[in-house]
Design goal:
Length: 1593
């Protein structure tokens, strides 16, 4: 630090130094910063004095200048004394004597400036002695020690109790006197002061005695508190606290117990702020750390108990465990030391000092304090007092008196709540500290709940201001918090108090379910972990639940139910969680559990609903089984439980329904299972595909008939439960959203949800979604009132265009609305005019229909392209989609059946002797009432159906416009109406079939019944393959009903003539639109109709076999389902039935291990098919097979069911037997049929290679023979063409393979041909040609007579050999497979069409194109023929049985010699073959009639002998047939044309097969084997032969 006094000042002191120093001191004294000035002055004075000590300045000069400076500051003497003190210490240490002398002289000179006393304080005694201020330093030291001792260490002696007790006795008498008079605390205080003075009493002791007396007289608060307060002015503030602390300390021995009076005194003093809680708290035991440790220990113990309860203990360990537990309990019985903090807390709560009580509780772990009962009870009492006025005003139930609670006398207690706002501020906080321990006071629990109820009433009544609303919102959220933190945990700790549970439900039911479920979620998943006590309770509940569930059976439902009820009152979430987990594992528990839940409270039922939803939404559970093809059993069990429990008990459904809707919104359809079950159980509406036809019939009647005969279970008493379901749906606006979500989700299942899933599962989910939609829609239709329905369901165009609902579902939802609407309009019109005639009624009905349906007709136009409405009118479309089976027919037999059942029931009641008479009477009345209802319903329906038919009669002329072609019209009808609806539901399937029949019966213009039925039956492969399991079942029902109609017409000529004979639907010449009048010749006669039906049966067989052979799961499953459904009407023909039987048998063998579900289906069908066998008839009984001699009128129609089917030609041939047939011919006919039977039987045992389309494929070796036949056939064709130029070559055989797909070219040709034919009449020349052809046919017939007789014997022989051949054939197949290295080839029975075929001659280019484009798109062209000039074709080719005959005996031998012949014949083979080919060609030209049968015989043998040799015939599905297979298809075509030869050829064939079989079969056999070895691929040879066949062509 820089020196303040420069050396120059000291040198020139007298001249200027002195004045400079004075100025410096003045300046420093005036400095505003006091501290800085003080330090600088100290330094300046020290430097001055230091110069004196060193001798630079004289002491008198220094004392003079100090005299001038001393006035500048008041504390200047003290500063100077400090400077002297420092210099004193410094100089006393120095050795130079002179410096010490200078210092002494300076102090002596300045004595007049600083007082003696200040110097005596600060200087050393020796210095003082040398200065002469004191005599002896030693004495001075002794004196100061004595003073200090007296000041700081000597205790003043007061009069202690033992010394003189009169003062204390007077004091106690003074405090203990009767204080009821006008004695005040001030008066007593004066007396106490006098006693202290008089008897020299210890004031602390006096205070202690005052507190003791106060403890004994707690009722005199108003006296003692002011007394202590006044007395405290005489003491230090801490004294009172210390005295209380000493008192508490006295009781802190392990055996000591603090008296409650002391706690109370401390509490009152705290409340009046006479002591601070912080000061007193430190005196109390136990410490906070100890409390924390204890709390942690409790938690650990609770967890151990839980672990013990969940652990499986073996019996040997049990005894040890018990002993340990006993020891622990003994330890626990030792009383814990007194907890003074809790004692004080209790006292504070009792006097109502909430503020301090809260402070204490905050320093402890949560709920630690209230877990001690006295504290919980004290706090409950405080809450009672606080809520009293509000509870009296709004909470007391009507009629209840209640016991009013007095308020606390203490003015400092919390303010009593008068309003809900005050309740929130004061009471809610107290309740939060109470937590689960409100359970100690059930009455307070009930009061709080009732206040909550009252608040909710106020909260839900509108009309308050915005500010109030905000307050109310805050209050509501606080109430929810209290419920979550206090009410529900407290309920868990209560001992099965059902009343509390019901009381709580009174408040809970006013909450929206979202809030309730949130509370239950917290309660279940969080609350139980918050407190050790609750942890224990949870474990005990689970333990008890396990005990009950282990013993629950159907027999002990009642006692077990009571136990479940008891347990559920307090801990429903834990109990139900466990019960549901058991149900998910064991579904046989469902029924007993549902029955045992009847002792639950309303709250428990609501909790159960939540627990079910939580279990359903469990993210850890897989909704699929491990195979990913079926829905998990836990989900199915839960769904089943849901349905049962919601039906039986009044549980709120909103949450469950909303959950399903949310899942659908998220694109998950698994949970629809729940909705399905709930609707089924609650409304009694079943959705099942296994309905019998009787049930289905009952479902087409009225509601009563449906209930009686339509369902499997007679589900009664659903009125209440269905009402509940309806209310839940309407109150929460879920009815329409659920419908729309389901309708949209159907496609979502496939395109979004089903991405990675197994096809089988996707189908299941789709079915589930669809079935639930149908079921739910049915429920809404039958339960919603007209207004409700119309208000909720939008118009059809809005549904489809805005909500993107599929059309079928949209109409399904709208249909009940139209029906309601029409009936209400009709009733209005009836009331308006009282005309009672039937005609008037019908007229009114039609008017009401027009009023309702007119807007619908407008609306549907937007659903499809304008082109659609060229063929069918919107009116027809809307009519089809808006009607139901109820509108079309009355199920009389069903009504009769149910009425008869009731009659039988009544008779049984009469006969029952045991039944009491009054019960008899009741039952009979019920049956009679039901009977009357049913009869009334039947009558009502009958009238309704008659009205509907009248309406349709009037409408029908405008239905089908057919502006393009009738064929196109049928396509649109099938595509937009029939196909979508027939797979919608079982009743819709029946409806579609009936509607087609109805349209036919109404003689609707432009509707070709034949075309429609043909389209339906012709190619069902694609339709079947694209169905789900349930859709296949419904499609099967539809086909069954269609077949039923067809079979009825087929069965009897009279029925046919009556129902079809003169109807426009059976015209075979489709003329220009609008011209439907045709002569009798244009109608299809009965016999030809039978041929057509046979062709349909054949088509069905072919499609079925194809599906069975694809190996595709869906194809096989669906076709088996369809076949099972159509079993009553198909197969009727024996050979078709046998073909099917073989395929199904093969499926049974193949799928037994691989796909057990397919195996089960196939076995089921196989068994049923066998039982139908006796009812099957041979083909010739199904339709006449003798050669007719009249013209044929074909109509070729291209197939495309729903735009998806494979194009298939339909040729309807009308044939009449020639009048001049002789008796001889009749006999021959019989014989011929016998042969056919034989062949039919034998063919079924003949296995044969099939290509991908299910058609017979044969070995490549056969091609040459085929070529020759083709050639000879084509030469014939040419001759015929030359004779009859008017004939079209496009005519197709009835049973032509599905592979003959028409091309655009042909379609155009056919169109032209039709136009020409329709315009031009027949010329005379043509008539002459007709006659010539008739003659030729007669000649051919006479040829057949001879040959047939000869061939009969051969056929009989073959029949005998049949079984042995089958065995040999099987051996041969095995040996071949082994030879080819185990290559397997699918084997199937021959399936050649047993129906006549007319040849198709086409140019080579067309054939090639067909070969390449085997899967051409279907073109909807209709080719109409009325060719009367193809007599030769029809007479020569009709009804040849194109089935492969069996192996001959020689063939059998060849099989055995096979291996020997191989090596010998190989070299000769080629030469012989070439030679033979040349010869055969020559023979073809010279004598084709003889040569062709030989070839065909040879071909037949080769088909039988060499099956399995062509590698390329094996194919899994239609799409993967390679180019080679297409060539083989060509061969099949040529083969079929080769087969279509005259009856004479057939006869020759028979003859030669017996005579020349031995020789040829050997050659052929060897050829085949050689071929197998030489060319494994089979390609080159085939190509060569194909070229040669092209040449022949």
């Amino acid at each position: 630090m820089a020196a303040l006094l420069p050396a120059e000042w000291i040198k020139n002191w007298e001249k200027g130094g002195k004045s400079e120093f004075v100025q410096l001191c003045r300046a420093l004294s005036e400095n505003k910063n006091h501290d800085v000035g003080f330090r600088d002055i100290q330094q300046a004075l020290y430097e001055l004095a230091y110069h004196v000590v060193r001798g630079n300045l004289k002491h008198d000069q220094a004392s003079n200048v100090l005299g001038d400076v001393i006035e500048f500051r008041e504390d200047m003497p003290s500063i100077l004394a400090d400077v002297f003190c420092i210099l004193d210490i410094e100089t006393s240490c120095l050795e130079e004597k002179n410096k010490r002398d200078h210092f002494t002289q300076l102090v002596l000179a300045c004595l007049y400036l600083v007082s003696d006393t200040v110097l005596k304080e600060r200087l050393d005694p020796e210095t003082l002695e040398s200065l002469g201020l004191i005599k002896q330093s030693q004495q001075f030291n002794q004196k100061s020690v004595k003073i200090k001792t007296k000041l700081f260490y000597k205790q003043q002696k007061f009069n202690l109790l033992r010394e003189e007790n009169e003062g204390y006795a007077k004091l106690i008498a003074e405090l203990g006197q009767d204080l009821s008079g006008n004695i005040t605390s001030d008066l007593i205080l004066e007396n106490i002061k006098s006693l202290i003075g008089c008897f020299n009493l210890d004031p602390n002791r006096v205070l202690d005695i005052i507190l003791e007396v106060y403890e004994c007289r707690p009722e005199y608060d108003d006296f003692f508190v002011p007394l202590i307060e006044s007395y405290m002015y005489m003491c230090e503030p801490q004294t009172l606290c210390h005295i209380l602390g000493f008192k508490f300390k006295f009781y802190q021995d392990p055996s000591g117990e603090t008296p409650s009076s002391l706690y109370r005194v401390a509490a009152v003093l705290l409340q009046h702020n006479l002591i601070d809680l912080e000061d007193l708290y430190v005196h109390l035991l136990p410490g906070d750390n100890a409390i924390m440790e204890e709390h942690k220990r409790e938690i650990v113990e609770a967890k151990q108990i839980v672990r013990k309860l969940t652990m499986v203990v073996l019996s040997s360990e049990k005894t040890e465990e018990k002993e340990k537990e006993k020891e622990k309990e003994e330890e626990k019985t030792e009383k814990p030391p007194d907890n003074q903090k809790l004692g004080l807390l209790e006292a504070l709560l009792k006097i109502g000092d909430w503020h301090h009580a809260q402070s204490i509780m905050d320093q402890m772990p949560p709920f630690y304090a209230t877990s001690h009962k006295p504290i919980a009870v004290a706090l409950c009492q405080l809450v009672h007092v606080t809520i009293e006025p509000l509870y009296r005003r709004v909470g007391v139930p009507k009629g209840a008196k209640g016991s009013p609670i007095a308020s606390l006398p203490n003015k400092r207690a919390p303010k009593q709540a008068e309003s809900f706002e005050e309740l929130r501020k004061e009471v809610f906080n107290m309740l939060c500290y109470l937590g689960p321990h409100l359970s100690h006071d059930p009455i307070l629990f009930a009061k709080v709940v009732r206040l909550g109820k009252a608040f909710m009433k106020e909260f839900q009544s509108d009309g308050s201001k915005q500010e109030d609303k905000e307050k109310m919102e805050t209050l509501f959220s606080c109430l929810l918090s209290i419920t979550d933190q206090v009410l529900l945990p407290s309920l868990s700790l209560m001992d099965c108090n059902a009343c509390m549970s019901e009381e709580l439900w009174g408040m809970f039911k006013t909450f929206p379910y979202q809030y309730r479920y949130r509370l239950y979620g917290q309660w279940k998943n969080e609350t139980y972990n918050s407190h050790p006590l609750l942890v224990k309770v949870k474990a005990q509940t689970i333990d008890r639940a396990k005990y009950i569930m282990k013993r629950l059976t159907k027999e002990n439902v009642k006692p077990s139910g009571r136990q479940i009820g008891k347990l559920s009152h307090s801990n429903p979430t834990i109990l139900f969680d466990y019960i549901l987990s058991q149900i998910q594992k064991y579904d046989n528990l469902i029924t007993p559990v549902v029955d045992s839940l009847k002792y639950l409270t309303s709250l428990n039922y609501d909790v159960l609903a939540y627990c079910i939803i939580e279990a359903l939404a469990n993210p850890e559970k897989e909704r699929m089984k491990h195979d990913d093809t079926t829905i998990s059993s836990w989900l199915q069990s839960l769904a089943s439980f849901c349905g049962a429990v919601f039906r039986k008990y009044p549980i709120e459904l909103a949450g469950l329904l909303q959950y399903v809707a949310n899942q659908l919104k998220a694109g998950k359809s698994f949970d629809l299972l729940i909705l399905k079950e709930v609707v089924q159980k609650m409304a009694g509406i079943e959705i099942t595909e296994e309905m019998t036809m009787e049930q289905l019939e009952a479902m087409t009647g009225g509601e009563q008939l449906k209930a009686e005969g339509g369902y499997f279970g007679q589900i009664r008493n659903t009125k209440k439960s269905s009402q509940r379901l309806k209310d839940a749906l309407l109150d929460h606006d879920l009815a329409l959203p659920l419908c729309l979500l389901m309708a949209q989700q159907r496609n979502g299942v496939i395109f979004q949800e089903g991405g990675e899933k197994h096809l089988k599962l996707v189908g299941k989910l789709y079915d589930q979604c669809h079935d639930t939609l149908v079921q739910f829609g049915g429920f809404l239709a039958s339960n919603l009132s007209t207004e409700d329905y119309i208000k909720r369901v939008p118009s059809i165009d809005v549904l489809c265009n805005e909500f993107h609902t599929p059309h079928d579902a949209a109409f399904f939802l709208s249909r009940p609305m139209y029906a309601h609407h029409i009936s209400s309009k009709y009733d209005e019109l009836k009331k308006a005019e009282k005309g009672n005639k039937q005609q008037h009624k019908v007229h009114k009905y039609i008017t009401s229909c027009e009023l309702v349906m007119a807007p619908v007709h407008e609306a549907v136009i937007s659903l499809h392209l304008p082109k659609v409405w060229d063929d069918i009118s919107p009116q027809f479309y809307a009519t089809f989609w808006s009607l139901t089976m109820y509108d079309l027919a009355v199920p009389h037999s069903s009504y009769d059946r149910e009425v008869n059942k009731l009659k039988v029931q009544m008779k049984a009641i009469d006969d029952n002797q045991e039944m009491p008479p009054n019960k008899k009477k009741k039952e009979k009345e019920r049956c009679t009432a039901l009977q009357d209802k049913l009869l009334e319903e039947e009558k009502k329906q009958l009238e309704h159906v008659q009205r509907v038919l009248q309406r349709l009669k009037l409408e029908k002329d405008n239905w089908l416009l057919a502006k393009s072609t009738k064929n196109e019209t049928i396509t649109k009808f099938l595509q937009l109406c029939i196909f979508p609806r027939c797979i919608f539901s079982a009743i819709d399937a029946v409806y579609c079939a009936h509607f087609v029949e109805l349209v036919h019966q109404q003689k609707t213009p432009n509707f070709s019944t034949l075309l429609c039925y043909d389209r339906v039956f012709s190619d069902i492969i694609y339709t079947v393959a694209s169905c789900t399991e349930n859709e296949a079942s419904r499609y099967g029902r539809f086909l069954c009903c269609m077949l039923e109609t067809v079979t009825r017409w087929h069965s009897d000529r009279v029925i046919y003539e009556k129902e079809c004979g003169n109807y426009p639907g059976f015209l075979t010449i489709l003329r220009a639109t609008g011209f439907d009048g045709g002569n009798k010749a244009d109608q299809l006669d009965y016999e030809n109709f039978r041929h057509v039906v046979h062709k349909w049966h054949y088509k069905l067989t072919k499609a079925s076999v194809h599906c069975l052979e694809t190996g595709e799961y869906t194809h096989i499953r669906n076709i088996l389902i369809v076949l099972t459904k159509i079993l009553p009407w198909y197969p009727k023909v024996l050979n078709l039935g046998q073909a099917l039987e073989r395929r199904v048998h093969k499926i049974c063998q193949e799928e037994k291990e691989k796909r057990p579900d397919l195996y089960a289906l196939a076995m089921g069908y196989s068994g049923q098919l066998k039982s139908r066998k006796p009812f099957m008839i041979p083909e010739n009984e199904f339709h006449h097979k003798d050669p007719p001699a009249r013209n044929a009128v074909p109509a070729t129609v291209q197939n495309g069911p729903g735009g998806a089917g494979m194009p298939t030609s339909l040729t309807i041939n009308t044939v009449r037997l020639e009048e001049g047939t002789t008796e001889e011919t009749d006999k021959l006919k019989e014989k011929f049929q016998g042969v056919v039977k034989v062949i039919n039987k034998t063919v079924n045992a003949t296995p044969k290679v099939t290509t991908s389309n299910g058609n017979s494929a044969s070995n490549s070796k056969i091609i040459k023979e085929k070529d020759d036949k083709e050639k000879s056939g084509k030469e014939k064709d040419k001759e015929k063409k030359d004779k009859t130029p008017a004939a079209t070559p496009e005519m197709k055989a009835l049973g032509k393979d599905g592979k003959d797909k028409p091309k655009e070219e042909r379609a155009n040709k056919e169109e032209k041909a039709r136009e020409i034919k329709e315009k031009t009449p027949k010329s005379d020349k043509e008539k002459e040609k007709v006659k010539k052809e008739e003659k030729a046919s007669k000649e051919e017939k006479s040829k057949t007579v001879v040959t047939i007789v000869e061939s009969k014997s051969t056929a009989e022989k073959e029949r005998e050999k049949e079984p042995s051949r089958e065995r040999d054939l099987a051996k041969e197949m095995k040996s071949k497979e082994n030879a080819k290295g185990g290559e397997k080839v699918p084997v199937a029975g021959s399936l050649k069409s047993p129906v006549p075929r007319s040849e198709t001659s086409e140019s080579e280019r067309e054939q090639k194109r067909r070969k390449v484009d085997t899967h051409s798109s279907p073109s909807h062209s209709s080719t109409v023929k009325d060719n009367l000039n193809e007599l030769k074709d029809s007479s020569a080719k009709h009804y040849i049985n194109h089935t492969t005959p069996t192996l001959s005996k020689s063939k059998e031998r060849e099989v055995e010699k096979k291996d020997l012949d191989k090596s010998r014949e190989r070299s000769r083979e080629r030469e012989k073959k070439d030679e033979k080919d040349r010869k055969e060609r020559k023979r073809d030209h010279s004598n084709s009639d003889r040569e062709v049968p030989q070839d065909s015989t040879k071909r037949r043998k080769e088909e039988n002998g060499t099956t399995g040799s062509s590698k390329h015939s094996k194919s899994e599905s239609p799409s993967d047939s390679p180019r080679l297979n297409e060539k083989e298809k060509e061969k099949n075509k040529s083969k079929s044309s080769g087969k279509e030869k005259g009856d004479s050829i057939k006869a020759e064939k028979m003859e030669k097969s017996s005579s020349g079989s031995k020789k040829e079969s050997r050659h052929d056999k060897e050829k085949t084997e050689k071929k197998d070895k030489r060319d494994s691929a089979g390609g080159k040879e085939e190509k060569k032969h194909h070229k040669s066949s092209d040449k022949h062509r």
